[in-house]
UniProtKB/TrEMBL annotation:
It comes from the Eukaryota. It comes from Chelonoidis abingdonii (Abingdon island giant tortoise). The chain crosses the membrane at residues 26-50, 96-118, 138-156, 191-223, 235-257, 269-287. The keyword Metal-binding does not apply. Residues 39-285 form the G-protein coupled receptors family 1 profile domain. The keyword Membrane applies. The gene is LOC116821759. This is Olfactory receptor.
Amino acid sequence: MEPANNVTEFILSGLTQDQELQQVCFVLFLLFYLVIVLGNLLIIVTIICSEGLNCPMYFFLSHLSFIDICYSSVTAPKLIADFLVERKTISFDGCIAQLFMVHLFGGTEIFILTVMAYDRYIAICNPLLYTTIMNKHVCSWMVVASWVGGFAHSMVQTLLTVQLPFCGPNEIDHYFCDVHPLLKLACTDTFIVGIMVVANSGMISLTSFVVLVVSYIVILASLRSHSSKGRLKAFSTCASHITVVILNFGPCIFIYLRPSTTFSEDKMVTVFFTIITPMLNPLIYTLRNEEVKNAMRKLWSINFSKSCPSL
């Protein structure tokens, strides 16, 4: 007979137990979160309000920025608030909801990044057919498919976890609810579930990463036939996306493409892809993109009372 689930809440260990360090982390991570929200909102507003940024690449970038805000908002506010309390708790339902949302936005972001690579592949390798292939209808369906893929991935992860019995202990060695730390607390053998988790999360990350690497090898190889100016512009755009891909996929593969175990480094790695990467994305895409920077300058210079042009 399976043990009953009598856990109503979980206790999070947080990032650190040092009181002084927690105060420093509160200020630091609050600043990080503000940068994430404001930076990504700036990207979204700039793309919506700039007629010159109406191509598919910026359409996908606006969705990526929206996902980054949502993704970090699932974990960062709770983490920041927990720096101020001694006992860091989360209800069972809240924990499962957090698990679901983390994988929903994380999975969707992976698919959006893959779609963005496909967009760059078509733009560089088939420029004459670009507007035909990447029309507004197709781009919209790609975004919808990314959300559906993220939802399906998240549902699998959540259902695999929620059906497990939890009878104690209830202390999660993490700062948010994720699959591997929860599997350690289950009152049953989780070997098969662990394999299924790796097959779901790890293989999605790895497969998408391989597809991205192959696509960019093809893109870079095709740039040899372009002019020097064309190569420079294409390489600048691709370099930004490649940087974001590495920052996202590296930690994800480290965390999820392995057996259901936890390492001491896991907390720092997850901080990187749940907080640091969403904060760096706006900087990467603006600092290396003249079109976005010019659009931002123009946006600041116009009368802010003027409404945005219709899309």
